[in-house]
Specification:
The chain is of the alpha+beta class and 551 residues long. It has 17 helices and 13 strands. The chain is 60% helix and 15% strand.
Length: 551
């Protein structure tokens, strides 16, 4: 009887809801914690092990990081053909990140724990991050300059640090020239080519026009030749130095210093030095371009593309959604047609995102973009300008996808505004437009912001429609640069969500790229949370501002 009364009082349901919320929060925190630990732990300079390993009677020296650990039953391993002593019931296996893919052919290998002997962490083992072929582990023997040994022994280590820094400085200069100055030259040459083609199609390409265009092209070609010579000098400077390392099997491997990003001795680093290296690795991840089929380097282009696309989507979707909601609530006659439109809007909110992607590809890209090319860019034919997936079509497709959320949220906010405030404004002589602008919209702003927050939360993580209307694995340039008109809406872009999919499922080296999947996923969560919290802060500020009107 007491139990029945307890449930009738409603206290049981309050506690049930509180428990459900608590479990949900714990699950969310657990997922975020797992992603953060797996992702951010990748940037910590891990110690490098050296051990002797008995591989079917052959002793081998193994150098690398202990990447993973598993405990298997001895019987299962025996059935798969692995020789295990009969006395053992369970076997510990280790995944060793041995790097040196250009030497061994693979980054990782699984080994049996009981066959390990003489495990140690020598201070002189060097861990390299390279522009190509992944990580490298070995002992530094000597440094060469133009083929001549200039340092060996302990002096070689300090010399290597200086020359790696010098090489990275040259790489930065090369990047600035190739992406900046040469990029602008190529952009101007392409504009001149299109201008010549346009004059030819219109019948205005005469000798004087050809001479003028040739003169302008010569100017750009001369600039390019000067930069080409500078680039050749920089490439020669980058490839000047080399370093000789002794790898695990005792053989020597000569590497160009120009191929090395960083060189560390993690076993010889204290906590402070590792913290500094950790901060540098995280910053490089956030600010650098991707390398090695997106499995190395940073994700800055993906961050930039994600944020820019979300901002464009918000700028498009919010005004359209607000205008539609105002018309449905304030101007449209409340009949069967209006009710049908509301039902359609609510149904559109549940349409799968890939359907919007197919629609965006067919309507925006092929129909609208194709006709824009025919009318405004005939000189570019057959190469499309807007008749191909790009930033503008991606933003419009996601704006269309999130529009129902903005409409519904805004209309809910408009319905909560007291009728007396509208009638009072009209009674004081204000027109309907003035009432809408000065009374209704300010009070509905928090609801508008709520719709915008929900739209951002959904759009920032969408991947399926973007794969059809603009996102790519690797974009050579950003859609925003110093070339007029500065914002290139026709360009394709990178996205954090697609980057996660590409690295996790399309990478040629999935095991090595797995930590980057976690790191990028955690970064995407932070980007979405930052965008949402910014919108929430603005909404709360507006809510406080118009609180007096509501009361």
């Amino acid at each position: 009887m007491k139990v029945r009364e307890y449930f009738k009082s409603g206290d049981a349901w309050v506690w049930l809801n509180a428990g459900a919320v608590a479990i949900s929060l714990i699950m969310v925190a657990g997922i975020l914690g797992l992603i953060a630990v797996r992702g951010l732990g990748h940037f910590w300079p891990a110690n490098v092990m050296q051990a002797q390993y008995n591989d079917n009677g052959t002793m081998q020296t193994v150098i690398g990081e202990i990447y993973d650990e598993k405990i298997d039953t001895a019987q299962r391993l025996r059935e798969s053909g692995v020789t295990i002593p009969e006395s053992m019931k369970t076997v510990t296996r280790y995944s060793i990140k041995q790097g040196n893919r250009d030497v061994t052919g693979q980054d990782f290998r699984w080994v049996l724990g009981h066959n390990f002997t003489q495990r140690q962490y020598p201070a002189d083992i060097v861990a390299l991050e390279r522009y190509e072929w992944g990580d490298f582990y070995g002992r530094l023997k000597s440094i060469k300059e133009n083929g001549t040994v200039v340092a060996d022994g302990e002096k070689a280590w300090s010399e290597l640090q200086q020359r790696v820094a010098r090489s990275n400085d040259f790489h930065h200069q090369i990047s600035v020239i190739e992406k900046g100055e040469i990029g602008r030259i190529n952009y101007q040459l392409e504009k001149l080519r299109l201008k010549e083609r346009k004059l030819e199609l219109s019948g205005q390409l005469n000798d004087s026009a050809r001479a003028e265009l040739a003169k302008l092209q010569d100017v750009q070609h001369k600039k390019y030749e000067a930069l080409k010579g500078k680039l050749e000098q920089l490439h020669q400077a980058v490839n000047r130095d080399s370093a000789i390392f002794i790898v695990a099997d005792g053989s020597e491997k000569e590497l160009s210093v120009g191929k090395i990003v960083t060189a560390q001795r993690p076993n010889d680093m204290n906590v402070g030095e590792k913290l500094v290296a950790y901060g540098h690795n995280v910053w490089s991840f956030l600010s650098d371009d991707p390398r090695e089929a997106n499995t190395e380097g940073g994700v800055f282009p993906a961050i930039f593309g994600t944020v820019m696309m979300v901002f464009m989507m918000t700028i498009i979707a919010t005004p359209l959604g607000v205008i539609a909601a105002i018309y449905l609530r304030e101007y449209a006659s409340q009949g069967i047609i209006t009710q049908t439109v509301r039902i359609a809007v609510n149904n559109l909110a549940g349409v799968p995102s890939i359907v919007y992607g197919v629609f965006g590809l067919g309507f925006f890209v092929y129909f609208v973009g194709g006709n824009i090319d025919k009318i405004f860019y005939p000189e570019s034919s057959p190469a499309p300008v807007f008749g191909t997936p790009g930033l503008l079509w991606a933003a419009l497709t996601l704006a269309l996808m999130t529009l129902p959320v903005v409409i519904v949220s805004t209309e809910e906010g408009l319905s909560r505004i007291p009728r007396s405030l509208k009638e009072g404004s009209l009674a004081l002589g204000a027109t309907k437009a003035e009432t809408l602008w000065r009374v209704i919209l300010p009070m509905a702003t928090p609801s508008i912001m709520t719709g915008m927050i929900l739209a951002i939360a959904r759009a920032a993580g969408e991947v399926a429609p973007l794969m059809l209307v603009g996102v790519v694995k690797l974009a050579p340039t950003l859609p925003l640069d110093l070339n007029a008109p500065f914002i290139h809406l026709d360009q394709k872009f990178m996205h954090l969500g697609f980057h996660i999919y590409d690295v996790g499922f399309q990478s040629p080296n999935v095991e090595a790229a797995r930590p980057l999947v976690y790191a990028t996923a955690f970064l995407l969560v932070l980007v979405v949370a930052t965008l949402n919290l910014s919108a929430v802060a603005l909404r709360n500020s507006l809510r406080e501002k118009y609180k007096s009107l509501e009361s």
